[in-house]
Structures are given as C-alpha cells and as structure tokens.
Design brief:
With 128 residues, this protein is mainly α. The chain has two domains: 52 residues; 49 residues, no CATH class. Helices cover 53% and strands 7% of the residues. The protein is built from six helices and three strands; from the N terminus they run βααββαααα. The longest helix has 18 residues. The protein is elongated.
Length: 128
Amino acid sequence: MNFVIPGYLTVAEVAAELEMTNDGVYKLIRRGKLEGVRRSERGLRVPQEALAAYQRRLAKRPHTVSIELTSASHARADFEAATGVSAAEWRRRWKADEIEETVDNMLLTIRARVLLVAEARGGIADGP
C-alpha cells in the first residue's frame, strides 16, 4: 500500500516529471545529483524541494545538439569540441555510468553512436 507523504514524491512520480525512467532517477540519487530519502526498506521518496532544485540546475544548461556528418574529420572534430573526448571514449564513459543521464547527454550519446557506426561502415569519409 502506498501512502501519500506530503512534500515527497515517489520515484515513479519524479521519473514522470523528468521524462525519464525509474532507473534514471535511481542513478541520479546514487550519484548524489538528486536527494532521496529512504522511508522504509522499499519506500524511497524524493523531497519536492530537492526535485525543484535539480530542475533549476538543469534549466541553467544549454539544450542544443546537432548532428552534421559532412566529413569524418569535421564530424570527429565537432564531437570532440562539444564533449572534450572522442566518440569512443564518450561511449565508454556512458556505458560505465560515468556520464550524468540528461537529455543533452543522451543526444550526445546518440551522436557518438551515429559517428562510430558510420565510421565502421565507411559511411562518412573525408572529402576528396
């Protein structure tokens, strides 16, 4: 039985608010990005004020990502300029849970994957 606790949200409610999975919310809590309060063995809750503070931090970040694969060298350079690491290193860090799960980082992960797959298939090449 779930009891409503004033001022606290369930993980599912936070996930819905942030448009992410429950697992994503648990990761945020484990990484210390979002406060979680254990009310019982199975009852983890997030203070509404902690969620509001997290959303304020997110609002301060830029939210634009583009994918433009004009040439291999340009695509690699653009990605590295945006992230500070290669597409392969980004993918490794993402898989190792070393990168925060945000919309922007998910888009960068997709961009890295597109670049890596295209390179592996010979889909992008440097100009003549």
